[in-house]
């Protein structure tokens, strides 16, 4: 018998799980193997010390503190994955509408118009809306066949990811006790 098998038998013997026939094999090996016999004596001494030691209960509030840490870790994970999902949705949405944005001329002028007030701002907003509608009209032409499915797919994907995240967030809410 190898000493590795003997060590395994020793552990099962200390746990009270060693069948009688294996006890005989263990005793026979311990008679002829000095290192295993010394190991067995050390294990029995350690078992005797541990079995006489009192079993301590956790301090008051220990479970509550541990569960609070678990809840904080879960909240951090939800926040991380939530921001990741939102960033991914925004990226998909941006990529989907990139052809539309590229068709709009004068973005710098639009941003300058935002700093003005009153009728100038309204005029530029209407101009931007007109350009947006014109770009949609262009997309219905030759470019629509290739870019609109991508834009619609991106929008649907962003909506589905947002809905999925909302559902998971509601499911992961900690249960108040």
Q: Can you describe this structure in just a few lines?
A:
This protein is an all-alpha fold and 177 residues long. It is 84% helix and 0% strand. The protein is built from six helices and no strands.
Question: Explain this structure to me?
Answer:
The protein is mostly helical and 177 residues long. It has two domains: 3-52, no CATH class; 62-171, no CATH class. 84% of the residues lie in helices and 0% in strands. The longest helix has 53 residues, at 119-171.
Low-confidence stretches: none
Q: Kindly, what is the distance between the CA atoms of the first and last residues, rounded to a whole number of angstroms? A: 56 Å
Estimate the global geometry from the Cα principal axes. Answer: elongated
Give the count of helical stretches. Answer: 6
Beta-strand level of the residues, as a percent range?
A: under 5%
Instruction: Supply the helix-strand structural class.
Output: mainly alpha
Total number of beta strands:
0
**Whole-number tally of structural domains:** 2
Mean of pLDDT: 77
Query: Main sheet?
Result: none
Helix content: over 70%
Order of helices and strands: HHHHHH
Radius of gyration: 36 Å
